């Protein structure tokens, strides 16, 4: 209780550990809320939660409530799952995929991932998961980062072509990207141009500053 009160005055570090995949992972208590950060970005909760909430709002909470299942690629500590369950009131099945066991362990210890009854966690590579799953998803959330960097495979044609195969007929993809340089802006533009004949793409730049949300349907 004392730490929670003090966190409204200054941030309190609850845990700091290193991951070979994500780098240094820090759990901080700030203004009564736990956050998971890497050296250069917010990994779960904080601004990331606001960014993905923005994307979900653009899709429409009522639309998501009617869906049967959601796939989260890049689960981390599960801030988007909290939004889905508590704000959107989504009651369908949520499958969360993450490659980093350290992040998942932190999510379970500090963010109560195991208490979310409609969440099933898969510890594996996102590319392998989408190649092997037989589930058709109504919503796929792509939020894959290593610190503040996005792996190159996310923008390779094969990845989203495979995602399209596991998307239901009226499904939608929420793709969180970061744009800090001209090269990254051009990368996103090339991606949109390539997939414009396969998806309807809505583009929302400068969300919380440097993030760009893409909604593909």
From TrEMBL:
The keyword Amino-acid biosynthesis does not apply. Pfam families: Spermine_synth. InterPro entries: SAM-dependent_MTases_sf. Gene3D superfamilies: Vaccinia Virus protein VP39. This is Spermine/spermidine synthase. NCBIfam families: MFS_SpdSyn (NF037959). Keywords: Polyamine biosynthesis. The keyword Flavoprotein does not apply. GO terms for biological process: polyamine biosynthetic process. It comes from Capnocytophaga granulosa.
